[in-house]
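testing teh design pipeline on a random one, pls ignore if ur not involved
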């Protein structure tokens, strides 16, 4: 059986799924807690936890050695790609591959694979920095490899 995976922003995740992640975090932090106790602490039922426990996992921000694949729609303006690469460099990530499509209707798609290095801060800060750039219309994490 094949599974499909999605990477979505925390704000788009239903509350019950965020609470399942919280239960997993509680259980990992205290081996004396039962599932019922952790679920109660998180504010969900045991049955909700059991329904989703194997289907939701927190995306960890600091993963040295991890390769991230990003896809971005950017406007066809001078300096947009350069500014984007500058943010990645400031973040302390290593660019492995980069590909930009031919702009259509003033928008190009850029695919970049980056490797997180020891000097890299967290992924959330990188994504926030990229989203704030002038000319960046849409950003997606399309894949992740490594720890």
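output:
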């Amino acid at each position: 059986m094949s599974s499909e995976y999605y990477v979505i922003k925390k704000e788009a995740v239903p509350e019950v799924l965020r609470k399942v992640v919280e239960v997993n975090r509680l259980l990992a932090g205290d081996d004396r807690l039962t599932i019922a106790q952790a679920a109660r602490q998180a504010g969900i039922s045991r049955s909700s936890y059991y329904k989703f426990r194997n289907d939701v996992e927190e995306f960890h921000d600091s993963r040295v050695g991890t390769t991230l694949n990003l896809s971005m729609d950017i406007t066809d303006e001078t300096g947009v790609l350069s500014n984007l690469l500058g943010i990645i460099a400031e973040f302390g990530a290593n660019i492995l591959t980069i590909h930009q499509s031919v702009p259509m209707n003033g928008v190009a798609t850029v695919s970049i694979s980056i490797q997180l290095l020891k000097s890299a801060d967290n992924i959330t800060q990188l994504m926030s920095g990229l989203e704030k750039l002038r000319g960046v219309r849409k950003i997606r994490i399309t894949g992740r490899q490594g720890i």
